[in-house]
Amino acid sequence: MKYVDEFRSPRLVEKIAAKITALNPGKNINIMEVCGTHTHNFFRFGLNKLLPKNIRLISGPGCPVCVSPQAYIDAAIELAKNKNIIIATFGDMLRIPGSASSLEKEKAKSGNVVVVYSPLDAVRLAAANPDKKIVFLAVGFETTAPAIALSVLAAKNGKLKNISFFSALKLIPAAIAYLLLDKRLKIDGFLCPGHVSAIIGTKDYAFIPKKYQIACCVTGFEPVDILEGVYMILEQIVRHKPYVANQYLRIVTKAGNTKAKKIMKRVFKISDSNWRGFGIIADSGLELRKEFASLNTAQVFPLRLKSKSKFARLCRCADILKGLISPTSCLLFARRCRPDSPIGPCMVSSEGACNAYYRFRN
In the chain, what's the furthest Cα-to-Cα distance? Predict the structure, then answer.
């Protein structure tokens, strides 16, 4: 790696400060990290206290649970009320508040909600419960999509008639493109997500420097990874030569995981998708292809995917997801809204920005 020896030294922060000075010591540099793990580790390891104060790391829509729309949550809750249906879900979906309930509450009432650790667990659950309809909540970004695609194929090949997949899968590059249309955001660089990039590669971010002349860097998750990613972004800004840098060379390639992408393409097609706090973003989601219609929850069950419910009064999750404000600017933060009593999805999920700020900021 080009910088590896230099960045293992204790003078890393000094080097970052020198880059800032070369740029403009009084200029604020806004870098958005589009990954919940980056947000958490930035505060968890105290990097916010090490970096110069004029470097601002802004949390973006890097939490898949946080951007799942209210209508999706409400539909999942309604399905959970059906005694013939078992909802299979990842654990961080349980506590997201719906309009009138949550999956956690429905689980307590009926036991019809089961936490799984892999989408293949849902397939096994269907095989073991032929008298029940299993609905897997397919939530996530490109990182989880290949495993979900494999599970769809496993269900189809196993001729299981009692399982379906309720997709709320999202695509990160489309969300970044949407954010760049918002003139209120003054983004100087993007820390692109390592996990997502391990699947899609780096080339899908080429539009960021090419069209918008904004620096970006695919970055790992160790403290030194994040600091090195910040440095590589600053170097682009100083030289006025933005490009897609790849700090995470040990994991991420330009083309990504071609086998995983092939499986995703086999099962899913790109579609418009509703993001909580954003609305509909064109070509930003994945839905099952027509040949898998019998495994598509939206085709199997009559679902109402429109919700009148909005964020709770005073909740600023929408603005936080867009990077317009920090969690501490929300009047509910650390007062009424805490990890033990969350009001908005950004506090619910372990990847949410509000959760990270609350746990590690002080």
Answer: 68
Q: What is the pLDDT of residues 56-93, one digit of tens each?
A: 899 999 899 899 988 999 999 999 999 999 999 999 89
Whether 30 and 187 have beta carbons less than 8 Å apart is answered as: yes
218: Cα within 13 Å, side-chain hemisphere: 26
Q: Which stretch of DSSP H or E encloses residue 227?
A: helix 223-239
Beginning with the edge strand found earlier in the chain, give each strand of the sheet holding 113-115 in spatial order. Answer: 113-115, 85-89, 133-140, 163-170, 279-288, 268-275
User: Which one, of 274, 283, 267, 264, lies nearest residue 145 by Cα?
Assistant: 264
| Residue matched to tokens 């970052």 | 16
pTM: 0.90
SS3 content of the chain, % helix, strand, coil (to 5): 45, 20, 40
> What residue ranges define each of the domains in the chain, with the CATH number in brackets?
70-171+256-300 (3.40.50.11740)
